[in-house]
Amino acid sequence: xxxxxxxxxxxxxxxxxxxxxxxxxxxxxxxxxxxELGWLxxxxxAAVAGYLDMPAIAAYEVASFxxxxxxxxxxxxxxxxxxxxxxxxxxxxxxxxxxxxxxGIDFNETTADGRFTLKEGExxxxxxxxxxxxxxxxxxxxxxxxxxxxKLLGECK
Amino acid sequence: MAxxxxxxxxLSAGWQKGGHEWRLENDTGWRLKDYEAxxxxxxxxxxxxxxxxxxxxINEVKKSVxxxxxxxxxxxxxxxxxxxxxxxxxxxxxxxxxxxxxxxxDRDIQRFDPHAIIEGMIIAAYAVGAGRGYNYIHGExxxxxxRFEQALDEARAAGYLGQxxxxxxxxxxxxxxxxxxxxxxxxxxxxxxxxxxxxxxPRFKPPFPANVGLYGKPTTIxxxxxxxxxxxxxxxxxxxFLDLGKPNNGGTKLYSVSGHVNxxxxxxxxMGTPFxxxxxxxxGMRGGRKLKAVIPGGSSAPVLPADVMMDCxxxxxxIAKAGSMLGSGAVIVMDETTCMVKALERLSYFYYxxxxxxxxxxxxxxxxMYKVIHRIEHGEGRPEDLALLDRLTINIMGRTICALxxxxxxxxxxxxxxxxxxxxxxxxxxxxxxxxxVQRAGSSFFTRNMGQA
Lengths: 157, 453
Description:
The complex is a heterodimer.
Chain A: H1 4-14, H2 26-37, H3 42-51, H4 56-65, E1 77-82, H5 85-88, H6 92-103, E2 109-110, E3 116-121, E4 133-135, E5 139-141, H7 146-155
Parallel strand pairs in A: 1-3
Antiparallel strand pairs in A: 1-4, 2-3, 4-5
Chain B: H1 32-37, H2 42-49, H3 54-64, H4 76-81, E1 91-96, H5 105-112, H6 114-128, E2 132-137, H7 142-157, E3 173-178, H8 188-195, E4 219-223, H9 224-236, H10 238-244, E5 252-259, E6 265-270, E7 273-274, H11 275-281, E8 291-295, E9 304-305, H12 306-310, E10 313-314, H13 316-321, E11 330-335, H14 340-354, H15 360-377, H16 385-396, H17 404-418, H18 420-429, H19 436-442
Parallel strand pairs in B: 1-2, 1-4, 2-3, 5-11
Antiparallel strand pairs in B: 5-6, 7-10, 8-9, 8-11
Helix pairs in contact in B: 2-9, 3-6, 3-10, 5-6, 6-9, 9-10, 14-15, 14-17, 15-16, 15-17, 16-17, 17-18
């Protein structure tokens, strides 16, 4: 189910931990699997668990506990906006509303063309740079005024 | 003392002015050669070449009165001294799972000074006799996790990590572990569970990590800023570090200032700096509006009204005396356009969302508190609701494995205590004391004034 490239990345993570502690690599391994497959099906989680010699349920517990694992399909670009208090004081809620209007979707919804999913985020540890958005869990965008949001949406082809 | 001269040259020099370009690819100065040019790794060399004993290293840190920069303020040197000497396998862990609303200092340390963290961790490993370490990095800052991996490669290639470091016969391996979005993993035992590849649910204490930590082995876990302060302590000496701050509150500290100020950002100032001075450094109040309230130590710290806050100095003891806590040094500034009910509603939602679900009082209580505050904010509050909230907080606090229950309760208690009239007004009049359009305008998009004042 997982490509050689993904398994190679998992191997590099496994090497960070003591030999008897392969399970420590499960968070990274699930993230790599999500990168490759788009989201984590139960089969994908089981494949990761099998590769790390751990019970599938233990990997599922991890996948369902941490916020950035997607256990259902999401759009090509998952946009997560922080609306927590410090961000909200500097336009975080305004940015979320602007995105909802622009994309015609609410939080936890995906546009009809499958391009965007919108999520409400919790603190990303960048409160001084509000409004803050995360694209596909990895790229952080700061000071997201309407102009900057438009530019970003344009880049997400 | 001239404040800007007092800052730690190994830590925030060059970027602590509040206001920087956000695109990481344009950053300069974080590489090994830049850090060494600032005097980086000299402290490690001094310790190893001078054959300073591990006990002497711990004593120097004790003298500095460096207190844990993650929030608890526990003396770092004392924490190191709890590590059992004889244990064959020990770990050093850095807590960069920075997700307490308002806190964004560790992100900038990761960004501009990853080698200060690495050097601090190596010195700590030498002091406590640990052979392996992990830096647990907040899930949302993936790009900085990658940068840290690069910094580790540089340190390995230069012989600062690995076998027989600098020929001193001391071995230490250091790795980065990337989180994936869970506030609770900032709690140290939840973080250890997470490194072990499990759900991040806190452990019962005792035993403390110094005895039973990562993989059941003795472990020292400190905040990023604590480790990053270590090289500077050995450059100027523990006593000089203490003298930068005030008694019992050693050194300089990074404060993350967010909210209604003209120049949000991180500011490194000596412990004991007046709040009024910090507010001035952050450019003062946005639009010249009036200060209403400040959360001085991250979202879990009790809120303080403007007049109380203006009399405080920024150190553990002064803020505690005023009835709050310095916590992580995250200063959330709110002006007169803020509805305190709405502000509390958002924080309560956060704790409800992030409770790990392990202990009933927290799992059920955080949801219950959010529900009650939500209905007050939305004009459906009941006269008995404030007494109910008070009872809920009392029944959560001190009855859970970790401090998240207390962290969720302290904002509720303090907001209701200091701004009770606003909550009562909401309940009686089914609307807000601050008109909605004033609130919206006050917290709108803001183009900040970059650079130094």
